[in-house]
Protein 1
Amino acid sequence: MELTEKERKDLLDLALSTIKAELEGKELPGVKEATPILREKRGAFVTLKKRGQLRGCIGYIQPIKPLHETIERMALAAAFEDPRFPALRKEELKDLSVEISVLTPLKEIRDVGEIRVGVHGLYLVRGPRSGLLLPQVAVEYGWDTETFLRETCHKAGLPPEAWRDEGTRIYVFSAEIFGDLS
């Protein structure tokens, strides 16, 4: 089920106002009006970019919380808990853009021919290791299917060809992606 333009705007506003409130030591704003879709449990990621460069990206793969709570929590996590970056500073806000990816449920595949670059994101699991790349990543880098698989293995800390192993589980998902990223 697709979000309305107002719901998209409300979620983007929620993500940014939550980050601002945290930086200013104020009470988190919460969502003003949670429509039925915003109350649905959905997996989602919040991506932050500073002047077009990745500044943080964290999300829930599984539908753990209502969407509006997921966005609030993941906005904070992307800004302050992404281990690849230092915590966001107040002076960075003016250069920050936000993108939200609301995920469909994961679907395990047996044939990599089912993967559609630009439509699917990948979640790969082998033993205790896992890696996920959102659908837009392959498009941004111009990857074909095999490169997308190898890069997802890399994200999981696995050898590049681990996707070929029988013990590796590959999942696809789609995402409704929106935001103000350039």
Protein 2
Amino acid sequence: MPLRWRSCPRPAGGPATPAATPPGTVVCAIGDIHGRSDLLEQIHAGLALDARLRPASRRVLVYLGDYFSRGVDARAVIERVLAWRPPGWEIVTLKGNHEDLILRFLEGELRTGLHWLDYGGVDALAHYGIPMADPEARDEATGAELRHRLLGALPAAHRDFLRHLPASHREGGYFFAHGGVLPGVPLEAQSERDLVWIRKRFLHSEADHGAVVVHGHCISPEPEVRPNRIGIDTGAYRSGVLTCLVLDGAERAFLQT
């Protein structure tokens, strides 16, 4: 299917002065990919075309995390993210909760690894050439064996990628995090756990967080646009719709597969 450009309306009740990117800066944010390297390839092509048509003195691409688990090929997603470095772009790769689970598993938290298996980890292991003989096995011995095999199967570049993912990024009036923020806490004082994992307290809050928070983590059929946040996890792994938010000054638009 061809890529679609869609307008991003500004909801009622927002600030009198709308959020904006720094002068001359176009910021693009891609929601949860979850192994859909095919959809990411399409978004990259659309962004490359947009860059040729849209003038900007600075371009930033922010990935909101959850590259792994589920989908067609998580390994191919990481390879594509690492390889796509067109001239003139700054690339920011944020940590998602699935990356947090994998890191904790690799560091020896076997229970965390067994929990991850129930949320797409079995698929991700297969993408790295580690099929499970019994996909239902959840005992400690199985966890130890899988951790050992995953440590051996992950290319060094993929291990480095996992270990150097920031939890947040800010551009002008926008703040980017996989999960969101804890209401009432200054953005600079947010904990990594909340930035990566928070759900209900953030989603239900109408507070002014000090910036419009752009996030993934919580699937919705359409992007969620609120005065204080924009959610762009449209469940790409099962819906086939990967969403990219394009911010240019005070303008907003969506690029979707």
